[in-house]
Give the backbone structure.
Amino acid sequence: LPDETNAVTDCHSEPPKTIAIIGSGLIGQAWATVFLRAGMQVVLYDTAAGLAEQAKAQVIERMSEFAQFGLVTQETLGRSLTHIKLAETLEAAVATADYVQENGPEILDVKVALTREIDRFAAPGVVIGSSTSGITASRYSAAIKGRDRCLVVHPINPPHLVPLVEIVPAPWTAQTAVEDVNDLLTQVGQVPILLNREIDGFVVNRLQGALLREAFSLLDKGVASRRDIDKAISDGLGLRWSLMGPFETIHLNAPGGVSDYVRRFGPMYRDMFSDDPGAVDWETVVEGGLEADLTGERPVSEIAVGQKARDTALLHLLVQRAGKAIASSDQ
Amino acid sequence: LPDETNAVTDCHSEPPKTIAIIGSGLIGQAWATVFLRAGMQVVLYDTAAGLAEQAKAQVIERMSEFAQFGLVTQETLGRSLTHIKLAETLEAAVATADYVQENGPEILDVKVALTREIDRFAAPGVVIGSSTSGITASRYSAAIKGRDRCLVVHPINPPHLVPLVEIVPAPWTAQTAVEDVNDLLTQVGQVPILLNREIDGFVVNRLQGALLREAFSLLDKGVASRRDIDKAISDGLGLRWSLMGPFETIHLNAPGGVSDYVRRFGPMYRDMFSDDPGAVDWETVVEGGLEADLTGERPVSEIAVGQKARDTALLHLLVQRAGKAIASSDQ
C-alpha cells in the first residue's frame, strides 16, 4: 500500500498528479479509488453524466471503507472529496490529465474510436492505458496516431483490493510509456508486472484459465464435488499462493530447491498431462535459467530459512482465520 | 482450528484417542503436531530410534509456536509433552492405536511391506491412512489382507499449517473407513475432501500441476520473467484463492453468476487452450449441474452480497499485509 508519508500532496513537492478515468463502471470506480488513496486527483468521465455521479458516490464509499480499516488517513479521506471531479465531456476529462485509464466496453470498434478521441485530446507525452482483458493494444491501437503511448494496463478484479496489474505494450509502444506506467502504479501501491510480448489472456487469465480448465475437467470426470474442488484451493493451495507464486512454492518444497523438486515430481506431473501436445520439458526450463534465477534469490543453503519464513506467514494466516471463525460464531 | 472447549480430554468424555505416526520425517512431524494440538495421544515410530527422538523435539517446538501464536492453550502445550511417545517397534506403535498415519518412502515395494506389517499389528477396525502423494491405495493395498481399511490420506505441505487433506479410497476401501477418517480429520481441525475415484495426482497436485504447466510454458515462451509470473499469483490470483476456490471465484465475477461468466469469458479461455485434445466444454458442465450447485449455495440475487463479503475479506488481507510491511521495515 502507498506510504502516505511520501504522498505527492506534500507541500514541498510537485502538485498531485491528475488521472483521467474514462468509463465509470466497477473497474473505473476501483481505479479512481486507487489513485485517490495515494493522494492524487481524479477526473471521472462516462458517456451519461448520471453514471459518473453515481460512480463518484461509490468511490467515496470505498475510500470511507479504507479509512475504517486504517488503510488511509482521515486527511486523505477528506481530501478525496475535493480530489475527485466529474467531467462533462471526454475532452474536459482528458485535457488536464497526467495519465489516462480507459475502461470502455470490450468491443474492438468502440475501443478504437474511444482511444482515438482520447489520443486527440490528451497532452503530448501522456500515456493512455486500457483495462481491457481481451483486446491487445496491437489490435485496438494500430491505426491510432499516438499509438506509441497506448498500452494495456490490466487489473485484477477488484482492482482497489488486489494489487497486481499487467502491463502489456504493443510492439510499437514507447519504452518511456511502459516505464511511466510502471512508476505510477508502483507509486500508488499497486504491483505491476510486465509482459514482454502480447499473448491472448495475458499472464493472469492464462494462469486462471489453466486452473479452471483442470477444475472443470475434474468435475466433468466426477472425481470430486464442486465444493471439494473449491476447498482444495481455498483451504489448501490458495493459502500458500497468497504468500508466494508457483515457482517460489516448488523451490521451497524440496530440500535441493527447484531442480530437486522437478527431478522428484516432474515425471508425476508429466504423466498427469501426457496428452498435451504442446508440453514444455520442465528440466530444460530449469537448466535454461529457472534454477539460476531462483537460487540467485534464495540459494539452496537458505531453503530451510525460506521454509521457516513461509511457515511463520502461514501461522499468521491461521491466526487470522481462527479469529474470523470466532468472530462469526459470536454473531 | 480445533475448538479446545470440545477437546476429547474433557474428564467427562472418553479418553483421548491414540494416533500412531509411522515415519517421522517432516510430514510425520506435522501430523503428530495436528493430533497433539487437538489433545490426542501420539505414538511416533521410525526405523531408527534416533530419528524419532529428534522428530519429537521438532514436534514440541511446533507446539510451542502454536502456543506463542495463541492457537493452543498452555495446558495443551503442557499435556503434549506427555501425550507424545516414542515406540521401539512398529508393533508397539500400532498395537494401541485408534488410527494409523503412515508416512513411509514413496517406493511401492516398501509401502506394500510396511502396510502389511501395520495391518498385521493394528487392532480390528483401526483405519490405516497413507500420506502418499504418488501411489494409489489400489496399487499398494491390493494384496493386503485388511485392504478394506486402507486408504490414502494425503496432506498438503506443511500439513500442520495447511488444513486441506485429500481422502482417496481404493474401490475396496470400506465406507466406514472413509467416514471414520473424515470425522477424525474434521475433529482435529483439518479440512478433508473426498475423491470419488482414484486419479494420478489426486485433486490437489492436478490443480497445482495445471498451474505449473502454464507457468512453465509462459516462462519458456519468454512472455514474462519468473518473478513477474510468481507475482501474478502472490499479489493477484492467490489473494482471492486464499478466500475461495476457482468455481466460487468465477461465480462472483459476473453479474449473472457462473453461467453468465462462462458465456462472457468461456470463448476467451477456449481460444487460449485450443490445442487441448481433451478439452471439456464448460457450458455443458455449467448446464449439467455446476450452475445449480453454485446458485443453490448462493443465488444470483445474492451475488452482490457475496462480492461485498469477498471485498471485506480482501480488506482484512490488505491490513495484514500493510502491517507486515510496516513490521519488516521496522527491523
In short: Chain A has a mean pLDDT of 93. The two ends of chain A are 31 Å apart (CA to CA).
